[in-house]
Amino acid sequence: MLYTNAAGAPCALVSNIQKYTIHDGPGIRTEIFFTGCTMHCLWCSNPETIAPGPQIGCYPAKCLSLDKCTWCVKACPEGGRPLEFENGVLKAAHMTAACTGCFKCVDACPSRALKRWGELMTIDDMLKAVVEDRSFYQKTGGGVTLNGGEVLVQWEVAAALLEACKKAGINTCVETALNCPREHMEAVYQFTDLVIIDIKHMDSEKHRSFSGAGNALILENIKRTAELGKKLVIRTPVVPGYNGDEANIRATGAFIRDALGNKIVQYQLLPYRKMGTEKYDALGIPYPMGDYQPPERCEWEQELLRLADILVTEYGVPAVAGSGSKLEI
Predict the structure, then answer these.
(1) Can you tell me the mean pLDDT for 21-27?
(2) What GO molecular function terms would the record report (predicted)?
(3) What is the CATH number of domain 3-52+131-321?
(4) pTM for the whole structure
(5) Fold category of 55-117 in CATH
């Protein structure tokens, strides 16, 4: 999917640019979150990046009320019809047929009770945001990480941005689910130093039930990534009761050993954290995990260490608990 601006320049639809990240690639990094995703993972913490277009989030606690402020209604070319109020307080913004998608209500809101996710940015716009922190990358071995959503939904502009970053001498990383056509993946890989990939479950039907997609294409793309000699970090977000059983982790270890020859930088077992719930509320979407509560930290921390030890000692996989261990690349 390729977006363009009014001038016809290729753009990415970006939900957020996060500075000084340290967990998605080596060193200090600038992380760019692209919108659009090919999956719907139950534990996704970035629901604003799933849809391929811009989204409006609503924060009622910030609304000044219609008694004190009507700027959003006045700014709306549809007379505020997409805006829902309860007792004079903004409750929701519905991007339905009544909404033109102009986002004038967001721009007008003085208290930021309305938020836009998804801004068109040219390659130059994004590159400028990346290169301004070059000194941090040089000191720490950092760089830029493209994330999502699924960055490979916007593979054309992602490849162009990564090429520009490489020309600027900046280390590049892509975090992806690889649920995409191989040619899109390989176009982006030309300019990618490190690839971070999730394996959510080794059973394809269970993978589908948790994410909305099977894993056959993903596993084939992971094998192709290894064949191309790309530096590869594999992650599993370990969610007890879903994919955290020892049998699944062993099956993942066997895949890394047998199909990839253990030619990866690291296999990270990540703890489930209930994050992004306020964004689901702002979008008017129920949190898919409901009231699920993970075990206490003292329990899951020891379990991740135990599973990592099994992977290292029995499968020869360079496994770690969490994403805090230094990446040797």
Answers:
(1) 94
(2) 4 iron, 4 sulfur cluster binding; lyase activity; metal ion binding; oxidoreductase activity
(3) 3.20.20.70
(4) 0.93
(5) Alpha-Beta Plaits (3.30.70)
